[in-house]
Amino acid sequence: MQQRIKENYAISGYFVFFLIAVTQAAATLFNFQSLALVHAGQDAWISIILMGVSLHLIIWMIYKMLGNPAKDVIDVHRTVFGKFMGNALSLIVVGYYFLMALFFLRSYMEVIQVWVFPSLRTWVIAGLFICIIYYVVSGGFRVVAGFSFFYLALIPMLFWFYFPTRQGDPGLLLPILNHSLTDVIKSSKSSCIIFFGLEPLLIYLPFLKSGQKHAKWAHFALLFSTFKYAAIMIVTLMFFSQGLLKHTLWPTMAMTQIIEFSFIARFEYVFIFMWQLTIIPTVCIPIWCCTRIMKRVCSIKPGLSLPFVLAALMLAALTLKERAQMDAFGTFVNECAIYFYFAYIPLLFIITWFAARLKGERKRTKMEEA
Description:
Elements: H1 15-23, H2 33-40, H3 44-66, H4 73-81, H5 83-115, H6 122-137, H7 141-148, H8 151-154, H9 162-166, H10 181-190, H11 201-204, H12 215-239, H13 242-246, H14 251-256, H15 267-274, H16 276-298, H17 302-319, H18 323-369
């Protein structure tokens, strides 16, 4: 098991709220509505709530596995599967975090290219972001966590969805519960990707002070994200007809276009560039997780692994050029997230629980024999 994290490297437990909330506020905010609408129609907001509620159970499992004393998923892998198999499984998880960072980065880059700089080369945007990410991640986990605190500055922006509400039609939300439970569950699966952000907790939990006491902040973050996405979905359904929404690639951006102030003509530009404060920590957190796993499993210092991870990230971002490629990649990542949340974590939790029970029984048997 890893040594206890030194006090000067740890952060306060309440920071887990920002670490989760900022990751779940990625570029999917701009077009997540089309994902949830496919199967559930005007009941799509219910499917989002269903997914959010189910993930509270996943958070509970994570804290039960890793708490008392705090450890990361690498320790769990080694304890349950042995050092060799455990390390191999941890390296597979590196690939998952890499896909997570790639999806966040490329999604936001696409927004920049479509809405702001359509003629700007992809490698230029990617290069600028890679430099920023290197600067943040090389500073260590406390710096990465500090950048997630900028999420506070973006919370007031969510109230600007009041403007499309004024022009919306509540009748478009009716009839409620007009779809079967199967359709609602399918819609929940399609919208799983908007709740990306719980997975890094498996790695950075030992860096949080106060042990199990900060679990409530993780639940608060998920609750806030669920309320946020459900509310935006309701506003979107009120603003667009379902026929129009199916053919709208960026519903959130389309709604921000109606906001007008006397001192600014294109408010959506402010919205996009302010959201950059969210995207930077969103990408940095999974990248830090990659370097952390490689340090613990392969004994490679982050100063050596980080440049190679970022170089691979840039090359992978440059290969995704067409809209069809982005759609296929998003679908693939969403499937990975579903299996990670609802197969990998529960299965690991059950195996860990049985292993702990078996270990406890053996210990009692030895004490009785003695």
